[in-house]
Amino acid sequence: MVLSGTASDGTLSLEAIKADDGIIFALDNTAKHDSMPRSAIAACCVDLVLSPADIAGELARISKHPSVSGQPLELSTFREDDRGEDDRAEATTRSSSPAAPSTSA
After folding, report:
1. Is 31 in a helix, a strand, or coil?
2. Range of the domain at 31
3. Which residues contact 15 (CB under 8 A, 6 or more apart)?
4. Among 28, 25, 21, residue whose Cα is nearest residue 10
5. Strand runs (DSSP E) across 1-105, as ranges?
6. pLDDT tens, 2-59?
7. How far apart are CA 70 and CA 61, in angstroms?
8. Integer distance in angstroms from the first to the last C-alpha of the chain?
9. With contact defined as beta carbons under 8 Å apart, do 15 and 48 qualify?
10. Residue 58: CA atoms inside 13 Å, Cβ hemisphere, count?
């Protein structure tokens, strides 16, 4: 996270973080000293430019991700009635088509 600063020396570190698949936030124009966030943004190594409140919200959201929280990923179950009419018609057509002849010897 790049919040505030007056130099550009942090940009090299941010590039290393990005090379390791890190996520980088920069403080928006509310930073009291904005040359460091601006340098990071100009170097194209910032993923999100956010306000302090939005940074907090994004950190809270990311903290719930299974790869961070250690919780298993919950997949929603697929139900027949979740599909649209077109999908049901296609499935019906496929199931009522005659089977292809066997080619085994």
Report:
1. coil
2. 10-69
3. 43, 45
4. 25
5. 25-27, 48-50
6. 666 666 667 788 888 888 888 899 888 888 888 888 888 888 889 999 999 999 999 9
7. 14
8. 65
9. no
10. 15
